[in-house]
């Protein structure tokens, strides 16, 4: 599940499930509902910060929920359902009419990393926590939108190779060098403090949200194609 707090122009979305904040249908529905609520309240200067309670920012899809189906085919169906259901979350973030910041307060794996990089800025703690894409170790292929999302956001072929084909667990300082993370901070508290400072600086610009979202979409055309997002031309100040 997740909660939403409003601090002036800042919307703070917090994952509040168990310690691992895994994505199952209930959590995904909560995320979509909260993002829809944020979109309905947007105004010039709005900024989203996404963070989490617990040791994990998010440990990705809830494989235990999938396996609880009781059969291999049932587990696959549940996994496919989660993968399909999470795609609109990514689309909502890419089209959200405001700057977005991920305050990665702990470990992030699989879809948890995808959630983070779907934001405009990613800040991560360096004392604890790694980014980990486990698909090569689990024997799972990548959803199309996840593969395209990483290619769109991470331009280093070496980083993509190490993260996906070697399953490297990346700490914050290395993630900054790879271009996955914008900055590293020495505790969960300092990650959040830095995220709030950045959010407040961005809020001062009072950009028009729809224009901001369309510019963002224009930067990631392949990602928008996979997510089914169309682009519009907006001229507001001439």
Work out the strand percent.
15-25%
Biggest pleated sheet: 6 strands, mixed
Could you say how many structural domains there are in total?
1
Determine the CATH superfamily: 2-enoyl-CoA Hydratase, Chain A, domain 1
* N-to-C SSE string, H for helix and E for strand: EEHEEHHEEHEEHHHHEHHH
Helix fraction bin: 40-55%
**For the largest beta sheet, what order do the strands appear in spatially?**
1-2-3-5-7-9
The computed structural class is alpha/beta
Provide the CATH architecture: Alpha-Beta Complex
Strand count: 9
The first-level CATH class name: Alpha Beta
GO cellular component, one term: peroxisome
Pathway: Lipid metabolism; fatty acid beta-oxidation
EC number: 5.3.3.8
Catalytic activity: a (3E)-enoyl-CoA = a 4-saturated (2E)-enoyl-CoA; a (3Z)-enoyl-CoA = a 4-saturated (2E)-enoyl-CoA
């Amino acid at each position: 599940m997740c909660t939403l707090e409003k601090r002036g122009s800042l919307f703070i979305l917090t994952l509040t499930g168990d310690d691992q904040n895994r994505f199952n249908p209930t959590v995904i529905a909560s995320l979509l509902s909260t993002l829809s609520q944020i979109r309905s309240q947007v105004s010039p200067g709005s900024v989203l910060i996404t963070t989490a309670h617990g040791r994990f920012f998010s440990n990705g899809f809830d494989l235990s929920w999938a396996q609880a189906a009781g059969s291999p085919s049932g587990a696959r169906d549940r996994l496919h359902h989660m993968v399909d259901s999470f795609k609109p979350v990514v689309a909502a973030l890419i089209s959200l009419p405001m700057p977005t910041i991920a305050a990665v307060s702990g470990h992030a794996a699989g879809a948890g990393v995808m959630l983070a990089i779907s934001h405009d800025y990613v800040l991560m703690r360096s004392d604890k926590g790694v980014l980990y894409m486990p698909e090569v170790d689990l024997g799972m292929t990548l959803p199309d939108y996840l593969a395209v999302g990483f290619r769109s956001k991470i331009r280093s072929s070496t980083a993509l190779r190490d993260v996906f084909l070697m399953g490297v667990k990346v700490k914050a300082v290395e993630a900054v060098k790879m271009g996955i993370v914008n900055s590293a901070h020495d505790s969960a508290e300092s990650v959040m403090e830095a995220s709030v400072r950045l959010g407040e600086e961005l809020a001062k610009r009072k950009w028009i949200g729809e224009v901001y979202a369309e510019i963002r979409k224009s930067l990631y055309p392949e990602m928008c194609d996979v997510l089914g997002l169309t682009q519009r031309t907006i001229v507001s100040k001439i």
